[in-house]
Amino acid sequence: MNIVEVGEDFEKYTENVTQLVVCNLNGKIQEIQDELADIFKDRIGLQQNTGYTMDITPSGIDKAVGLSKLAQYLQIDKSEIMACGDGDNDLAMIEYAGLGVAMENAIDDVKNIAQFITKDCDEDGIAYVINKFI
Fold this sequence. Notes:
By secondary structure, this protein is of the alpha/beta class. It is built from 5 helices and 6 strands. The chain has a 3-stranded antiparallel sheet with strand order 1-3-2, covered by helices on one side.
């Protein structure tokens, strides 16, 4: 994976892009997402992953798609998969997995669909849930 922070110099990085992460530290990420959704309609996927960043992907592509492709490649049934998350961009993945886990500090939408809520990130919630279920 090649991660490049481009800032204003983005034009030379516009080919073969699979995902963009937009960051706004001024509390306007929802405003930016709403504007992009209005401009591009259903041609791109938009998911917030924190209160100040958002993922932009091709339409119909999300973490569940990637997880299902990996499971298919590894010949693992989705019932054998545990997925952990905390933001909008984790919703589809949490729904897809056999065991969907929300971090204690997750947004309410993630907590509402998860089968289990683990400790938050600062309390080693991932380690806790791995030790509990694996």
